[in-house]
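FAQ

Q: What does a record look like?
A: Structure on top, sequence underneath. For example:
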């Protein structure tokens, strides 16, 4: 029996393969999950029904399982942070945040260092989050 909050076997396997510098995309329900990341990235589908699960719901146990050193976000059309980003900042107080306009975020999410894509059913706009795995210190 595992002692981690995450018990989804495919997600655990994908996280276990991720090392320092690997990127994990937590994508909202509007994100092009099939084409918006490298073909080699492992896709974990947690989009059961609209609104379940959200990026925040996936991020909460993820931060207790994987060290996160940086977070990239998609900025709104007005070049501002969407309200959901406040939740991410609260859960990732140690992480450096970088904002990208929409198409620049898509480009960042398609780089070869993106190894895991978690498809959520988050209905909030601009809820996408690109995480960089940090170093385990203990």
């Amino acid at each position: 029996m595992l002692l981690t909050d995450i018990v989804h076997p495919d997600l655990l396997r994908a996280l276990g393969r991720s090392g320092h510098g690997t990127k994990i995309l937590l994508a909202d329900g509007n994100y092009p999950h099939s084409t918006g990341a490298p073909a080699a990235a492992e896709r974990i589908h947690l989009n059961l029904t609209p609104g379940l699960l959200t990026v925040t719901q996936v991020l909460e146990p993820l931060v207790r399982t994987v060290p996160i050193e940086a977070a990239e976000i998609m900025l709104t059309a007005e070049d501002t942070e969407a309200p959901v980003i406040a939740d991410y900042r609260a859960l990732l107080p140690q992480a450096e945040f970088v904002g990208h306009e929409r198409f620049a975020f898509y480009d960042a999410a398609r780089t070869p260092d993106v190894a895991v894509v978690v498809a959520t059913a988050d209905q909030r706009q601009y809820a996408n989050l690109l995480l960089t795995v940090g170093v385990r210190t203990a």
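Q: Is there anything notable about this one?
A: The mean pLDDT is 96.
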